[in-house]
Structures are given as C-alpha cells and as structure tokens.
Amino acid sequence: MIKLNEKFLAPFVSKEEISSYEAKVSGAHEKIINKTGEGSDFLGWYTLPSDYNKDEFERIKKAAEKIRKSCGVFVVIGIGGSYLGARAAIEYVKSSNYNLLSKDTPNIYFAGNSISASALNETLELCKDKDVCVNVISKSGTTTEPAVAFRVFKEFLEEKYGKNGAKERIFVTTDKARGALKSMADKEGYETFVIPDDIGGRYSVLTPCGLLPIAVAGIDIDEIMAGASLAAKEFSVCDLEENDAYRYAVIRNILYSKGRKTEIMACYEPSYQYMSEWWKQLYGESEGKDGKGIFPASVVYSTDLHSLGQIIQQGERTIFETVIDIENPKNKLFVPFDEENADGLNFLAGKDVNDANKKAFLATVLAHSDGNVPNIIIEAESRSEKCYGYMVYFFELACAVSGYILGVNPFNQPGVEAYKKNMFALLGKPGEENEKRKAELEARLS
Ligand code: PA5
C-alpha cells in the first residue's frame, strides 16, 4: 500500500550508515513489543488493529447512521489528537472540499481547536437553520478549548431542541472513567465512546476518537481497520532490510545527526494537507523534548513551489523533505486543445493533468536533490480507506521507533503544560498557586 523509495538519498545516507542502526532498532523494537521503554503504558495503538473493541465498533457505525439521518451539520469538537486524524481522513479519502460537494452525508465542521470567538461564532452561524449533531472529543475531558466550545454548542442545542432533544444529538468520546466530560456525559445521559487508557491523543485516530466522525462522513471504517491491520502484520518484523517503517525512522535519525533539523512533508495533492497536519502533531509532540527533535513542517506542491520553493531550493541547508507520491490520484482531467494556443501549451493538449503533476514532482525532486536537500519518497498506492489506515499505522510505528532511537519518551508531552499553567493563572483560575503565578506573570507583562 505504501513503499519507501530511497533512490534520491544516495548522496546523503549510505547503506552502511543505515545498517549501523540495527542494534538501536532492535532495542526500540524490544521496547515496543515487551513494553519495557519509557511511556510503555501508552502502547495500545500497536495491537489496536486486531484487538479493538468490536462491540463498540458496531455501535460507532450505528451512531454514525443515526447522525447521518438526523442532521445536515455535524460539529466535531476537539483539539490536537482529538480532531486532526479524523479531519485528515475526511480530506484524504473524500476531499478537502468535502463540505462543498453534493452528498448524502452531513457537512462536518471542526470546532474547539482554537479559542477564537470569531471562529466559534462563524461555526454557530453555519449551524443556524440546520439540524445539528455534536461530537465532543477529549481524552482527558479537561482541555479548555473543546470545553469552551462544547459549552457554547450545548447551549445552542438545548435552546433549539430542548434538553431531551439535545441529549439525542450529543455524542461524547472520552476516557472510560476519568475527567469532567465523562462525569457530565453520565449525568446528562449522552451516548459515550471510549478512548482506551493505553492510547494517547495523537495515536488515537483508529479509536472512536477518529472513527465516529470518519464514519459519519460515509467512509468505510472496516476498510480503514483492514489497512491498519495489514500494516501491523507487514511491519511486525524487526528487519531493517524489510521494514520500511523502521527504515524511515532510521533515515530521519541519520539525517538529523548530520544537522538536518527540519523535516518538510510534501505532497502534490491538496487533499493530503491535513495528513501532514496530523503527522506534524504526531512527530512534533512525540519527539520534540529534552532539547532534541526534528522540527516537522509541511508544504503542498506545486502550490508552495511558488512560495517556499525558493528557500527550500537555496536557503540554509538544514532541511530534508519527505515527499508523498500518490500513485493513483482519484480523478483524471485532460488539458483542452486551444485553437489560438496563446499560452503555447498545446503540446499538453489531450494529456492528463495528473501527468503534468507527476512531472512537476520528478522535476522538483531532481532540483531539490541538486540543491542539496535529501528527499525521502513515500509512494502511496491510492486515496482509499485501506491505504489511509495503512499509512496511519506506518507513521505511528515509525514515530515510536524514531523517538526511542532519538532517546526520548515518544508518548508524553510535558511541554504542552507550560502555556496552560500561565493561561489559567492569567484568566484568574482560583487557587493559591495560580494567584502567585498570576502576580509574577503580570509583573513580567507590565
Ligand atoms: O497527543 C496528545 O495527547 C494531545 O495532543 C491531545 O490530543 C490534545 O492536547 C487534546 O487533548 P484531549 O483529548 O485530552 O482534550
């Protein structure tokens, strides 16, 4: 379904360098399968494609059907790992214009992924005069951004449908026992789905966290799990020659050790944009700690060849690219013949626009390689559900292995707390520690 192409890496990474990582890879592999590494309480994603909760999976499908029948707008409230994977799936498998397409599934709006009053107001405006269902997703059940958005949408639904009517339209995805959201769901009687204890937010797209919104969009979640399951099987071997996920993890570590501090994920299909957003969170939160980590960035080509292309070609040589080459993009479109040929493009007449896109890809890989930018190519078979599931598992596994090779705990995110502490203090959250911090921060701000 996806394959690593190392053709353009030869000047930057040698076969011997890759082989020299064998012991480190075995170490990382052991940590995952024997649960002996840091963060080993969060390895549930590793076996998820085979041991996911089948009863809950069927309940997700039923809830998705109910949602599809009862609303024109489905609002998904969540931030970080609690929305990026679902949005990535909808855009990758369907379209980045999903909401604008004519379809028999609801429009899907994502809310609670910022604290912008304007963004929330705009989403509310889009819900006016529409039948609406809401899925609030928070593993911890205490994250401020989705909690604020949920307050707003709960009030909106209760005013529109009454408390009992709203209850039928609110779906909660959270921890099985902990958190304010779980307590509220129990008290109000909302239908609830569980993000397993041993799966952290950014590894949770194949749990109900991602699967419910994905299913509402009419995407076949059985196929997604089949793709993930195939990947789990194919990438279970600890053999650096065979295992592309492990090779990807090693190659990026080698490049990092040679001063390549930024990895730019590139794709020539705009529908991949949110896959890159999901990947950035996965890798950034997993590896960026203890003063280490590759900075994950992304571009959409050829769009960004007219924006960031210059700096990628000739700027500081601290970057490398991971380029996703989708072999079977969904549609074909042929360039029309034009009598006047004012733009001189009749040599393209009758050719598929995909061919031009492919040539842009090849031309750019060669140019960037000449410009001393290492290019890792990942060939993806298609935009199918199965390929999506396969790719998710590939990147999750590679991320865990890469983090262990780097020497960090790939499953925690202690740095995320810093802004939260300050924000709560500045907002005046009660408590002695908050008051003290508030005074200190205000002195610094004045
Ligand atoms: O990967 C993570 O754990 C985070 O990015 C979370 O997904 C994000 O902070 C949202 O957390 P929660 O689902 O608890 O609201």
Commentary on this structure:
Helix 4 (54-70) runs parallel beside helix 9 (208-216) and helix 5 (84-94) packs antiparallel against helix 12. The protein is 50% helix and 13% strand. It has 446 residues and is of the alpha/beta class. It has a 5-stranded mixed sheet with strand order 1-10-9-7-8, with helices on both faces. The protein has a 5-stranded parallel sheet with strand order 3-2-4-5-6, with helices on both faces. The termini are far apart. The longest helix has 24 residues, at 144-167. 5-phosphoarabinonic acid is lined by residues 79-82, 138-140, 143, 146, 200-202, 281, 285, 413.
Main features:
alpha/beta, single chain, 10 strands, 17 helices, 5-stranded mixed β-sheet, 13% strand, binds 5-phosphoarabinonic acid, 446 residues, 5-stranded parallel β-sheet
Quick recap of the structure?
By secondary structure, the chain is an alpha/beta fold. It has 17 helices and ten strands.
| Unreliable stretches | none
Structural class: alpha/beta
Q: Strand fraction band?
A: 5-15%
* Largest sheet features: 5 strands, mixed
The beta-strand count equals 10
Order of helices and strands: EHHHHEHEHEHEHEHHHEHEHEHEHHH
What is bound: which ligands?
5-phosphoarabinonic acid
Going across the major beta sheet, what is the strand order? 1-10-9-7-8
Radius of gyration over C-alpha positions, nearest whole angstrom: 23 Å
Note the overall shape: globular
